[in-house]
Amino acid sequence: MTTTTQRANITAGTAPGTAGGFLRAVYIVWWRDVIRYWRDRIRVAASLAQPLLYLVIFGSGLSASLGAGFAGNSGISYTQFMYPGIVSMSLLFTSIFAAMGIVWDREFGFMKELLVAPIDRSAIAVGKALGGATQAMFQGLILLLLAPFVGVSLTIESTLLLFVFMAALAFGLSAMGVAMAARMRSMQGFQMVMNFLMMPMFFLSGALFPLVGLPIWMTVLTRLDPASYGIDPIRRVLLGAPAERLALTWGDQTVPMFGEAAIVVVFGLAMLAIGARSFRERD
User: Fold this and answer.
1) Are the C-beta atoms of 114 and 282 separated by less than 8 Å?
2) pLDDT 10s digits, 35-52
3) Which pTM does this prediction carry?
């Protein structure tokens, strides 16, 4: 439950209709989510464990099964191919599930305090989306420390590019989670809907297999999956020239990396607009 001090911090200096008030409300919502995430060390550890298990078990097992076949076609091992997908998996799961805090706040009364506060309700959606993206970025950046262990080298330039593409993916997926959570009334309902959406998004994103040579129906689904446009530039930056042979294409044309990032950001802005509207329409 919120305290009088917490509510005073949220409402102080957040007069509706002013840019300063809007930004302060966004900051307070964002900062609260970041602090709450950081204090939950078990959640941080569990969020890192699942991608590591995928990388070790799937990477090692399928590398042994595929042998030289995969490396011969792409110039990279399957573990190296999978590594960017595992980093992106951490971004996907963390950013979307961060929106669960909206449902949690609603059930325990904190969201009611925000909705009756003299602030623009859109600031709640923006703050929650940025909070989820920040949490996801923290998880993803930790996994980048594994790059040398899978034979991937990083430079200052590639790290900066990765930060941009990871931030775009984290924002887009976090905004989608906010848009969904804004209309959910129970934790169980949110978890069911998110699990139903996340697994198809993950498996169709190209995280575990190249998006080339697929059946037409699957090719169409992968091009409709927003996560595909977030994972592909991350893989191309991490793996360099070999990954260009497996890059996402429209017809015979390879989609530019910054074009893919723009698609993810536009998707995120659209989801954020839906989430903001849902908050404004709530009683």
Assistant:
1) no
2) 888 887 777 777 777 777
3) 0.85
